[in-house]
Write a structure and sequence with these properties.
The chain has 93 residues and is an all-alpha fold. It contains 3 helices and no strands. The longest helix has 31 residues, at 35-65.
Amino acid sequence: MPHSPDDKRRALTRLRRIRGQAEALERAVEVGTDCRPLLQQIAALRGAVGGLMAEVLESHLRETFGPGSPGHQPGPFDGELDEITTILRTYLK
């Protein structure tokens, strides 16, 4: 769950965009749009949901394991969190 006001605002903005994409997809199905444009809309919707997932997951990882998290002790893997989140974002695309 995004906790900072900026994180929450970004998540809500993404959710509103996703809702708009889902509504557009529903309208396209209702009017009988061809498969190719439907597939493009579905792929865009999936990408938007994946982006939201990556954002919330990154926020959770940073709150749980990053500097400033409860019980965090500086160690040799502190810089690895950025690399892990980059890999996850790539995978969730």
